[in-house]
Write a structure and sequence with these properties.
The structure is a single chain. The protein is mainly beta. It has three domains: 103 residues, Immunoglobulins (Immunoglobulin-like, Sandwich); 100 residues, Immunoglobulin-like (Sandwich); 45 residues, Membrane-bound Lytic Murein Transglycosylase D, Chain A (Roll), CATH 3.10.350.10. Helix content is 5%, strand content 42%.
């Protein structure tokens, strides 16, 4: 058994645990925000005789989210859900087959008028396998929740060479007012080959799936055991209806707000009545171990049944 951190419980809805280890309506104007970090160590109706389009069948892969699939096929999340109205999309399963409308063949471009959100510059780490993982956060400063959020991350090269580009869609269905959501992108190239990284807001709006509910987080505990942060909490359905748990996102930040790791934990689809509780337990290993106090944030969501 390794070092164990102090155990601290904080109130909902967005508890923050500090521990010491050995180490309104959207604004009218539109702004595209860019955050940068330097590399350091570490219609017309169709003709009546036109053939009926054949829908595309897509098989769910590891790491897929509905928002990823919708963006990659150039359709909205609502369109994708409508095409699969008879299927349970509450918790995607690897190997599950869903329908992609056949006229969606072009990747959706960045939202022309994204809701302005605040983007933290990505912090990038080189992994033991020689890949680069870039982590950051997006803050929603508005009075309304934000949905459909994606970020474009670029790794910059010296000498004016073209950057490497990846698009990150956040794991959360929405970002609540005044809160944040983490983003993550993985590149197959070592971080040492780049001079810096930049993040650009790609899409964000004030419309989202209205059936998504957030679960209250209570009785949070954090322990550091043999190099792993063990996080436990009680999730409560504070809505007036039945909720189907979907996922929890646990984010680790150092004292300056840099993301040093996060994990998405799928929740089983048991029905939670009003006031019902769900016990959460998540283990996380950070990219680096802080020598100063650490923040742990938990966001949990469900679908109204």
């Amino acid at each position: 058994m390794g070092e164990t951190s102090p155990t601290i419980a904080l109130p909902s809805p967005y508890p923050v645990v500090t521990l010491t280890v050995g180490r309104p309506s959207p604004p009218q104007q539109t702004t595209t925000l860019t955050a940068t970090t330097r590399a350091e160590s570490p219609t017309s109706a169709p003709a009546t005789d036109a053939p009926t389009p054949t829908p595309i069948l897509y098989t769910i892969q590891e790491g897929d989210t509905l928002l990823d699939i919708a963006l990659n096929h150039g359709i909205s999340l609502d369109t994708l859900r409508a095409a699969n109205a008879g299927s349970d999309l509450g918790l995607l399963q690897i190997g599950q087959t869903i329908v992609i409308p056949s006229d969606s063949t072009i990747t959706e471009p960045p939202s022309p008028t994204p809701l302005p959100l605040s983007i933290q510059p990505p912090t990038c780490y080189e992994t033991r396998t020689g890949t680069t993982v870039c982590l950051g956060t997006i803050v929603n400063p508005h009075e309304n929740a934000a949905g459909g959020v994606s970020v474009e991350v670029r790794l910059l090269r010296s000498g004016g060479e073209s950057p490497l580009v990846e698009v990150a869609t956040i794991e959360q269905s929405l970002i609540l007012p005044g809160t944040l959501a983490p983003y993550r992108v993985v590149f197959d190239t070592p971080w040492s080959e780049f001079t810096g990284a930049t993040a650009i807001l790609r899409s964000a709006d004030a419309t989202f799936d209205s059936s998504i509910l957030t679960l209250s987080v209570e009785n949070q505990r954090v322990e550091l055991v043999d190099g792993t942060f063990e996080v436990t909490a009680e999730l409560e359905n504070t809505s007036e209806g039945i909720a189907q748990p979907l996922r929890a996102i646990v984010t680790l930040q150092n004292e300056v707000g840099e993301v040093i790791g996060y994990r998405v934990a799928p929740l089983d689809d048991r029905a939670l009545p009003p006031g019902g509780r769900y016990s959460l337990q998540v283990d996380l290993v950070p990219q680096v171990y802080p020598s100063t106090p650490l923040r742990v944030l938990i966001y949990a969501e469900a679908r109204a049944v």
